[in-house]
Amino acid sequence: MGQRELTIIAQARTVLNDVTEPYRWTTKRLMELLEDGQKGMCENAPLIVSRATINTVPGQATYRLPGSSIKLIRASSSLGRIELTSYDAIEDFDTDWEDTYGNTVSRIITNALDQQEIRPYPLTSESIALKVAYQAIPVPLGWEEDDSIEELTISDMWDDGLKQYVIGQAFLDYGDESSVSRAGTALGIYQSALSKAIKLAKKSFSKRVLTTKYQAKVASNSRGDRYGNSCNNRFRY
Q1: Contact 164, 187 (CB under 8 A)
Q2: Of 34, 42, 24, 40, nearest to 163 (Cα)?
């Protein structure tokens, strides 16, 4: 546990009126809440973007992103950026898409119900290195009693929101009317920070992939609707 985590927990204890030992909330409990707060933000906005290389196998249809992934943000090969698309869109584009083979990957199909699964289009007849960037969850935090001492991963601009999450969830541990009311105030501030993160992410990735959970539609550069689609087609190809 680094100084950053110690500071957030100390500030939370001040609000919780829990500054003298024996503490009502153990350090381990507050670290667990801090970890949950960071994870919650990362699940809803791409605050952590990780990268990996996937080598296709001739004839293999689907591939898995790393276990820490939430969804694909962008992909490329040696030939450049690869468009992200959906099963509905690829069906409209090529009715025989499941049996189409090629030597280059022009699109990556994402699965709305399992965003760790991706499917290159067309099926490759030779091995191709796909470089992918994906929204990821942070590694678990550690504390003094733990063997792993992992620290916060996201920017410190979100520290106040994380502190409010710790405070709010700690108050909910008590469950009395006064504590629940104070929890609501703190969690409301955390939610505002999360909303800001989602809004900033939409600006940062608007040309790559929507940040809305369980979607992976891509914006093109053509004039059209909010996804960049033309009037006559769901996606521009």
Answers
A1: yes
A2: 34
Beta-bridged to residue 105, according to DSSP, are: none
pLDDT of residue 204: 75
Q: Among 237, 204, 203, which residue's Cα sits nearest to residue 220?
A: 237
Exposed / middle / buried, residue 178 (Cβ in 10 Å: 0-12, 13-18, 19+)? exposed
Write out the two tokens for 23. Answer: 């503490």
Q: Which contacts qualify for 217-226: CB closer than 8 Å, 24 or more apart?
A: 217/84, 217/85, 217/86, 217/89, 218/83, 218/84, 218/85
Q: Determine contact, residues 4/159, Cβ cutoff 8 Å.
A: yes
Centre a 10 Å sphere on the Cβ of residue 8 and count the other Cβ atoms it contains: 24
Q: Could you say which DSSP state residue 28 is in? A: H
Q: What is the pLDDT of residue 144?
A: 59
84-118 burial by CB neighbour count: b if 16+ within 10 A, else e? bbbeebbeebeeebeeeeeeebebbbbbeeebbeb
Q: Write a three-state SS string for 143-186.
A: CCCCCCCCCCCCCHHHHHHHHHHHHHHHHHHHCCHHHHHHHHHH
> Structure pTM?
0.78
- For the chain of 237 residues, list the mean pLDDT of each consecutive stretch of 10: 91 96 94 96 95 96 96 96 96 95 96 95 96 94 63 95 98 90 96 95 62 34 36 33
Question: Rounded to the nearest 5°, which phi and psi values hold at 18?
Answer: -135, 60
